[in-house]
Design goal:
The protein is of the alpha/beta class. The protein is 36% helix and 17% strand. The protein is built from seven helices and six strands; from the N terminus they run αβαβαβαβααββα. Strands 1-6-5-4-2-3 form a six-stranded mixed sheet, sandwiched between helices. A hairpin with a 4-residue loop joins β5 and β6. The longest helix has 19 residues. The termini are far apart.
Length: 208
Amino acid sequence: RKDHTNPYIKVGTKKETPKSRNHMRLKLTEEETSDIRRMRDLPEDERVLIDVRSEKVSTDGKNILIGCSDGHQIFDLVGNHMKFLMNGNAAECCCHAHLLNGGALPLSPTCPDNDAKITAEAYLINTARSFDVKGANTIALYTHAPCGIARHCGFSFEETLHHLFEAKERVKKHFAGKIGLKVICLCQVDYGTKQLTYHIPRKRWKTW
């Protein structure tokens, strides 16, 4: 007798997952790990991936977060970002998140993903609404590694960051009339044994 509420479970048996649904948590490749180390382990004044400082994230405790909906990373990504906001000594903490596959990457005008256009339009429409609803002026654009969409597009880690900053330029241009607008780029990395979030300053990226 089958349990019709879940076709993958039979009464009296252990839960079984078909091979087609057995998608595991992604792991960093050697190339990705090497690129991350090269950007992270530079002298402090040259480092591309730097530790997040709460005052760089927000001064009023409000952010519109655009990130990936990856189920293995979402708790760490959003949870840590809320901690960054709370540590900034603001009167409130408001992390207004828009999460779709690929994070901010689909906002890059040259992102080759088939769904990039419709995803980007959804982000821009909802971000505009979020300005009115939450009164936030700072947009936090996230990518993460390893990222399934980045791999689907054939991006190296360095190329992923290139598209992240392309996304930033698009967002700034689209909301050019927004007074006080601030757009920051961040990257969450899953090392397997730990997950860390880095801020990527534009000037450091441009000199990389």
